[in-house]
Amino acid sequence: MKRHIQTTGIRQWAGEDLLELQSEPLKAIDNFFAEYGSCVLRGCSLTDNDDGTFRIAPGLVALEGKDVDQQPAFMVVPFAGTESTPLPAYLTLDHTVIRRTYVDDRLKPIAYDYQAVLSAVKPEDGICLELSEDHFPRFTDVIQDPEHRFFTDAEREMLNQHDAEIERIDLKDAEQDSRLNDHDNDIKEINSKDEEQDDRLDDHDADIRRIDLKDTEQDNRLDNHDQDIQRVDTKDAEQDNRINDHDKEIERIDLKDAEQDNRLDDHDEEVKRILLKDEEQDDRLTNHEEEIKRIDTKDTEQDGRLNDHDAAIGQINKDDAYQNSRLDDHDEAIQKINRKDEEQDGRLENHNQLFAEHTKGENKNSLSLYKVSVDTTGHIQNVEEVIKKDIVDLGIPAQDTTYSVATQTTNGLMAATDKTKLDGVATGANNYTHPTHTAKSNGLYKVTVDAAGHVSATESVTKADITELGVPGENTIYGVATQTTNGLMSSTDKTKLDGVATGANNYTHPAYTARTAGFNKLTVDSTGHVSGITAVAKEDVTALGIPAQDTTYSIATASANGLMSSTDKNRLDGLVSNAVQGATIDGTEVPKENNILKFPGMGQELVTFTVDSNQKLAAWANNQSGNDYSIVLVKQGIWTGTKEIDLTATQTKRIYGEPGSKIEITGAEYALGYNLSSSNLRGVDSNEYLINGLTVEGKNLTGGRGVISGCCNLYNCKAITDGNGSNAASFFMCLKLYSCYATSNNDTSGVGFLVCKHLTGCHGTNLDTSFVTCDFLNNCQCTADLKVAYSNCNHLTCCSGDVNYDHAYVSCSYLSNCHGQGGSEGNFYNCYYLTGCGDTDYRECYYIYGCYGTFTNCSNMLGNRASRTNGYTNCTVTAGGTAVSATAAGGFNT
Hints:
The chain is of the alpha/beta class and 894 residues long. 31% of the residues lie in helices and 27% in strands.
């Protein structure tokens, strides 16, 4: 039997490893009970209903049957029980398929849930466990004979009564848990409503403060405005005085000599400038008065808004009273719902029986495409898998048609010859060919032009030809022609020439019949123009090798080609919108680019906030506005602060830590976490939330909540406690932890994992106790703990504990393939339901199966092996029953 090990460090676990870890203990248990045949292991007690039927309680049975592949199998499975059945009844092995969506968005099986089902008819193959009043085989019956008995009849009756009482208590606990969960949901809804109202009141207070600030600002502006008016009035008075003085000066100047006239003229100009300045100031004063009127209007408008605000506050108070009334009605409604739930439970039981009647037919568990027949009651009567012929009969081609791109050597969406022709034609080319004529050297000629506008004949020009035109026989000097003056050409010709573009010709495009848009075959004339068209017929298309019917392309999936290959589809599915790029995977740094984290094969995700300084850490802890803290990356370095990081308040969903990054929080209530209830794990539990590669250290924490609290989906995280304060835990009330590490910076003090669930590959070291009140631990380990490794934990598989004193495991239950060492007072102490545990010391433990070591004051033992001579001290096969005899080393108890 393979036994996985875990040395110091972080091991990479694959899916098959976890399946193997599950299969090994199940294989041992199933094979152990297979030797004794089908029997009842626990529960399944009979109660007479006094109407010819019996109630069978839920329990655990060992059954022979067939697995999901219809191969012979023997399994230990649960039985859900039944309220009413006639006897004899028959238990058979059955299963249901549990499916979940994989990363390729396909629904696939993740588990087969085997269970015992009850039938009133004995199966034809006879493979079943028969239950009747005089035939009720329990495990203790099939392994004993009249001379070797584990239980007396009185003890068995007492055990049956005890099982019935436990069953009643379990049902009551389940009912109370359900009611408490409903109550917690109601309280959560009320708290959410209160928080919403608090937020609205905070906004209201902020609005009032803003209005007060605005009023203060307006008062200051009005004060400044009054000062400006006073300054303007003072300036006007000063100017009036100056003008009066100026008038006196003018009168005095008028008496002066004529030589001062020039200075008077200059002075008059200055007076005009001053008058213009006065007019400008009058305009500014008018604008100032209009601004004052606008401010007054604004104040009146704000007074009205304040009155509306006061009215809104009154309405909010009324709404609060109304909501309180609704909450009272809600409490009454909850009571009605509880009564309705009890009624529905009864109806659900009847429904389950009816459903069982309707589901006796053949199961089709595989995910496939079926043809079905439905009877008159609406049930599927017959199922056949769809075959390829069924698809072809619908008119869908049996294969996809693929068209290649045409080349000069290979036919495709056009012929290879057409492709060659097309490649040889320049863009925009036509089919015009210029006529051939006799070349002439450079000279002055008389020319003959044919009907096409080409020179067809030439004759050299003589002087007489020139003079006959009226041109003088001697040299004449001509000016350059312009559009207004004749020169070497007339002004009219110059105007015409200036209007002709360089390189222009006298070409006129031939006239052709206009055609509307359509799919046509073309006729092209010798000049490259379309001279005729004919509509394209279907035969023209099919003649090119194109199918006469439409070709349908399937959508690509992760396993089938379609409009893209299945390989490309898998790659596309891997590029998840807003997935993650960054942090670490099993200690390997994930690459980053432009503040985007990139996980190989997992897509990418934009980081919304980066902690790369103590100031950034403080902004996050104080929920400073203006930032989005939903996806946080902690950069390499040690960042310190004195305030806890409330991830509920900051609305943080995912955190990634770079290698070498660390957060240190001192003197706060806790270091980092989500809101908690004092009585329940009330942080977060959703796949939206993730913490990867984060290291957090808490110093002198005061709130008893530990370093990291209320978080879920933690990968490769490390929490360090100093062991001070009550419940100084590294991880507190966390869920789904993978390869996480807890330790203390104060030698062996503090707790590693406190009230946590679903831990895989986690490690605690140098602590007082590594794991306290934790459930569902797989392949966890602790080393160098001072006192205890695991205390009050449940459902431990393949765990190991190494302590300096006391015990490795205390008051734990349901342990499989676990190991402990170093405990001075027994490595396993006061533990229950131990299976296949290793070489160690067991003290005051109960229900021990297939374990190896030394045993003291233990009971309910079966198939164990002593590691030394006289390895059993004061032990009994059953509680208060036959003592286990001393044996040699390697001896089994039976």
